[in-house]
Amino acid sequence: MENDVTMPNVATEKVAVTTNEGPVKKFKCGAVIATIWANKYKNKEGIDDVIHSVTISRVYKKEGDDEWKDTNSFNTNDLPKVKLVTDAAYQYLALVDVSLEKKE
């Protein structure tokens, strides 16, 4: 899917567009990441459909530890970054929905 969205100060990571097999797209700003997931399901008419969800996380390393960890807890200074990545994720999903509607 070639619906790239550019947002200032937000890095994007291309990820394979497959459902239930990993993220569709990631938006990063510093240590804050918005990850878009596609979840397949059958709608009430029994037709295969996809619904998207978004997770927001922050990566960090504990002092003296080399392993990266993630959390869904944010410091005050993280909140502007949370806004940037959620805006980018929403814009991406809005454009994806519009492009899918045009194909139908």
Please render the helix and strand layout as text.
Elements: E1 11-14, E2 23-29, E3 32-42, E4 48-61, E5 68-71, H1 79-103
Antiparallel strand pairs: 1-2, 2-3, 3-4, 4-5
What does this structure look like?
About 15% of the residues are buried. The two termini are about 15 Å apart. The protein contains one helix and five strands. About 25% of the residues lie in helices and about 40% in strands. With about 100 residues, it is of the alpha+beta class. It has one helix at about 80-104; strands at about 10-15, 25-30, 30-40, 50-60, 70. It has one domain (about 10-104). The longest helix has 25 residues, at about 80-104. Mean pLDDT is about 80; it is low at about 1-5 and about 15-20. The chain has a five-stranded antiparallel sheet, with helices on one face.
Helix content: 10-25%
- Secondary-structure element order, N to C: EEEEEH
The proportion of strand residues reads 35-45%
Overall structural class, as computed from helix and strand content, comes to: alpha+beta
The total number of structural domains is: 1
The biggest sheet amounts to: 5 strands, antiparallel
Number of distinct helices: 1
Mean model confidence by pLDDT: 82
User: What's the total count of β strands?
Assistant: 5
How many angstroms does the end-to-end distance come to? 16 Å
Give keywords.
single chain, 104 residues, alpha+beta, five-stranded antiparallel sheet, 5 strands, elongated, disordered N terminus
